[in-house]
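User: I'm writing a tutorial on reading structure tokens. Could you give me a worked example: one chain, its sequence, then its tokens, then a sentence or two explaining what the tokens reveal?
Assistant: Sure. Here is the example chain.
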Amino acid sequence: MTVTTNSTFVDADLSTDLAAAALDMARRFHAGATLWVLSPQWEPHAHHVAVEFVHPVIMGKRALPSVALVEPDPVAQARVATQPGDLLMAVASADQPAVIDAMRRAPAWGARTLWIGSGPRPPAGAADHILWVDSDDPMVPATGRFVLLYHLLWELTHVCFEHPGLLKPEADECADDVCVTCSDEGRLGEVVLEPAEPLGQALVRTAKGEEWVDVSVLGDVAQNDLVLVHAGTAIARVDDGEVDR
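And here are its predicted structure tokens:
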């Protein structure tokens, strides 16, 4: 019997992306992360990914906590569910408003993001890991190619667990209280509570948790606004498409 394979399903670039994503996921799971999955267009994919990761790769291996987010407002659901250190995965095309919004807010929630899809790609930096099928065929989501990607991701994540040395987090370059490299950068934050009085402080959620932040530089802010926080002060608003990773 002759077996033929289509090597274009997973080319060298996508293989590299899968390996990097799997290592990142393994480190996060090792540290206690939960994987949250949304797929507004193709809800069965969200369920499939969640079941895949909860299911041990072989008997005796660990189940990895994973939950499908399938409420009508997946961004609101992700906001409530996601904790710092978690993983947020989307299986969707690049033009899905809810996915775009969730991906841009995830850094403020402290979540690492992955985006699986096909067709036109999201902009660079739209997610921490973009695993993309470069095809204009609208039937790709129904052909099994997405399933192949997240099956490989699941298996490669478990492969990483077989090498405990890989699970150590990368050395933090900013070991001192004040980092020369990043001291001028702002942290992405999402407004939780507006100031109770003019020029007061707002409660803002960042990857490090919730903190009271001076928003007087910006004036009025509203719940769920995205801002850049530096030295306890919101120094800028973040509009659509302005989140850089």
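What the tokens reveal: The two ends are 48 Å apart (CA to CA). Strands lie at 35-38, 66-69, 87-91, 112-118, 129-133, 187-193, 201-206, 209-214, 226-230, 233-237.
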